[in-house]
Write a structure and sequence with these properties.
This protein is α+β, with helices and mostly antiparallel strands. It is 44% helix and 28% strand. Helix 1 (4-11) packs antiparallel against helix 2 and helix 3 runs antiparallel to helix 4 (66-75). The longest helix is centred in the middle third of the chain and has 18 residues, at 41-58. It starts with a helix and ends with a strand.
Length: 108
């Protein structure tokens, strides 16, 4: 995977956090792809929905885009997902990419 893959996938997603992640990537942000194996979107949904719920109940400020990411991971069902991070000057993004690397399943 090269930097063009997540940039292209994020380009298809018109959400605020996708645009911000893409802008950071284009500005030269650090990019790390965890591509040794995919993970089930259902498993990721279990993890991230629990985090979202705990943050809600404890009053912790939730990351921008977290609620939408949880919804999108749930909607992805049993699809296989790759994880990547984009670490920019303003924030760090976690990007959930489809198995074929052509679309962004979710991002936080």
């Amino acid at each position: 995977m090269n930097r063009d893959d997540p940039e292209s996938a994020l380009d298809q997603d018109d959400s605020t956090s996708a645009r911000a992640a893409r802008a950071e990537l284009q500005a030269g942000a650090a990019f790390q792809f965890f591509g040794s194996q995919t993970t089930s979107s259902r498993q990721l949904w279990d993890i991230w929905s629990h985090r979202h719920e705990v943050m809600f109940h404890t009053g912790v400020i939730r990351r921008p885009g977290l609620a939408e990411a949880v919804d999108r991971l749930r909607a992805a069902g049993t699809a296989r997902i790759y994880l990547a991070t984009i670490t920019g000057s303003q924030r760090r993004f976690i990007v959930f990419l489809s198995e074929d690397l052509t679309r962004c399943a979710a991002r936080v």
